[in-house]
Design a protein that fits this description.
By secondary structure, the chain is α+β, with helices and mostly antiparallel strands. Among the domains are: about 35-100 and about 120-170, no CATH class; about 435-530, no CATH class. About 45% of the residues lie in helices and about 20% in strands. The protein is built from 17 helices and 19 strands. The protein has helices spanning about 1-30, 170-180, 210-230, 265-280, 295-310, 315-320, 325-340, 345, 360-380, 385-395, 400-410, 415-420, 440-460, 470-480, 490-500, 500-515, 525-530, and strands at about 35-40, 45-55, 65, 75, 85, 90-100, 100-105, 105-110, 110, 115-120, 145-150, 155-160, 165-170, 180-185, 185-195, 195-205, 235-240, 245-250, 255-260. The strands form 4 sheets. The chain has a 7-stranded mixed β-sheet. Strands 4-6-2-1-11-13 form a 6-stranded mixed β-sheet, with helices on one face. Helix 5 (about 295-310) crosses helix 9, helix 7 (about 325-340) packs across helix 9 and helix 7 packs across helix 13.
Length: about 550
């Protein structure tokens, strides 16, 4: 009897163990991420009220949902906590307010007024900690289901690219963070090109969107990118008006930003953002959205931003100065001048992007140096070769920049990889010196770089003096000094820069003179503090 009992107990525990294993595997399979429902509504000027309802769909398990430290613009309601434990099949709420309008790179981050409400997911949506982990699998499901519910004023139009999404992966969350969400007193128009569509939203009364020239310009951009990527796409553009520059998001489904059709830079930014939208719709993954390859995707966007503008109506190209290689000559002017003037800051190897300490360096690499890297590769491999190779070889878990460059440049790979990708040699685009432009245009290019990069450094340091270049000052220095006695680089480099632009060569030598007179060595980043000591500590844009 005892033997039988013992045997029965062995069988019982064996089957219990099997059931437990099955149960655990089911539990692991079923537990999965939660169901997230966001409800957003305006709650005063530049203030957004958000209710997040989280459901634990697991049949068996109690689950923890934790959120990262709340940003300065987000205020949790007193009744809400950053960590929630939710029983299986139950729902809990997390309530908070978002203060929009914080100053960012391209203006105020979002806006709410009595006419419209525009924002992106990054600054408004609290996401679980898992959403911010780098290097997760592209296929990993982070949320079982996600929905965005906009609670707008009566009569307002809504732009909601994320009403409902199941089995949310990292690429979905990236889109969610970057896309623009909008509601307001908008007028809507459609622009259709070869099965692709632009949904144009603008505040009521904005007549420029019906101008034939501007409509043709928008069609040109859409058509160009559709053909470039061989992708038919629907894209929503929210054009904002008002005195304050505002950006409300720019993702693969939608973009919302201040826009003045008479401002060339606004068209350039729109072109840049559309490239990103098409690229993100074509390639899904984290690799190109983080160092050390973020420079590559931004370089491509800036490169094609300028190429696409060549497809615009002729009257606009003439009016805005979009002439052949002029945009790339501008970048090369800035590149040569800044890297030789401030070598400590701006002599950068692109593949060392992770080690950059200053946002000014990142700005220089992404938007000045990187597009010139694309230009260099295309001079060797041919038109659109870089993008086409990327689209062909990109893989989420195995993409290698070096392998792509090797395949693309073939016999020229070794030299180029060594010198310009992992090295800091000057990108040889000297042919851009033949681009027609006068000295005042070059000075304008250089002052633009001085201001942009200096502004970033002013945010990071208590004070960083921004120099304003003038031909008059240069002529005065030349009158009283022999600039040829000063050297900013090796003789071969100086000879190449002189042949490219005599003006840039002279400005760099004049800079050496000012550094020497201030008692510093060329390349010392502290020199400008001395020779610009009489500048007002509050730098004002000229």
């Amino acid at each position: 009897m005892n033997k039988k009992y013992k045997r029965y107990m062995q069988i019982f525990f064996m089957f219990a163990g099997i059931l437990l294993l099955v149960g655990c595997s089911s539990l692991k399979k079923e537990e999965g991420p939660g169901i997230f429902e966001y409800y957003l509504k305006p709650d005063g000027e530049n203030r957004l009220a958000v209710t997040l309802r989280i459901t634990n769909p697991s049949t068996f398990a109690k689950r923890e949902f934790s959120f990262p430290s709340v940003g300065e613009n987000i205020e949790l309601d007193e009744s809400s906590k950053q960590t929630l434990w939710i029983e299986s099949g139950k729902t809990k709420e997390l309530k908070y307010h978002v203060n929009l309008g914080e100053d960012g790179k391209h203006g105020a981050q979002g806006i709410i007024n009595d006419k419209f409400c525009v924002f992106d997911g990054l600054h408004t949506l609290l996401l679980p900690e898992e959403a911010y982990v780098e290097g997760i699998s592209n296929e990993e499901v982070l949320m079982k289901q996600l929905s965005i519910n906009l609670e707008s004023e009566k009569g307002w139009m809504e732009v909601n690219p994320f009403e409902m999404k199941k089995n949310v992966t990292w690429p979905d969350l990236y889109d969610l963070m970057n896309d623009c969400f909008a509601m307001g007193e908008f007028e809507r128009r459609e622009i259709n090109v070869e099965d692709g569509k632009l949904n144009i939203y603008s505040p009521q009364g904005e007549k420029w969107t019906q101008d034939v020239i501007y409509e043709e310009a928008l069609k040109s951009l859409l058509s160009y990118y559709q053909n470039l990527f061989t992708l038919k796409k629907e894209y929503s553009v929210i054009f904002l008006s008002g005195e304050k520059q505002t950006i409300g998001g720019a993702g693969s489904h939608s973009v919302g930003a201040s826009f003045n059709p008479e401002n060339a830079r606004d068209w350039e930014l729109l072109s840049h953002r559309m490239f990103h939208a098409f690229l993100d719709s074509s390639l899904h993954g984290q690799t190109l959205h983080m160092a050390p390859l973020l420079w590559f995707s931004e370089g491509l966007a800036t490169y094609y931003e300028n190429i696409a503008l060549q497809q615009m109506p002729e009257s606009m190209r003439i009016s805005y100065g979009w002439k052949d290689d002029l945009q790339f000559a501008k970048l090369y002017d800035q590149y040569l001048y800044m890297r030789c003037k401030e070598p400590v800051l701006y002599q950068i190897a692109p593949m060392e992007e992770e080690g950059l300490k200053s946002q000014a360096q990142v700005e220089f690499l992404h938007y000045i140096q990187a597009p010139l890297m694309i230009k260099r590769m295309e001079t060797i491999a041919g038109k659109d070769s870089v993008l086409n190779e990327l689209l062909k070889c990109y893989e989420w878990d195995s993409f290698s920049m070096e392998d792509m460059v090797k395949q693309l440049l073939k016999d020229d790979y070794v030299e180029n990889w060594k010198n310009y990708f992992v090295g800091k040699e000057i990108i040889p685009l000297w042919q851009l010196g033949k681009t027609v432009r006068n000295d005042s245009t070059i000075v304008e290019h250089l002052n633009s770089a001085e201001w942009t990069l200096g502004s970033w450094l002013n945010k990071e340091l208590e004070y960083y003096p921004i120099e304003k270049i003038s031909i008059e000052e240069l002529e005065n220095l030349k009158e009283n000094n022999d600039l040829n006695q000063f050297s900013y680089a090796d003789s071969e480099t100086e000879k190449s820069i002189h042949e490219y632009s005599k003006l840039i060569d002279e400005l760099l030598k004049a800079n050496c003179l000012k550094i020497k007179e201030a008692g510093f060595e060329v390349g010392d980043p502290m020199a400008r503090y001395e020779y610009l000591e009489n500048m007002d500590g509050k730098v004002e844009e000229e």
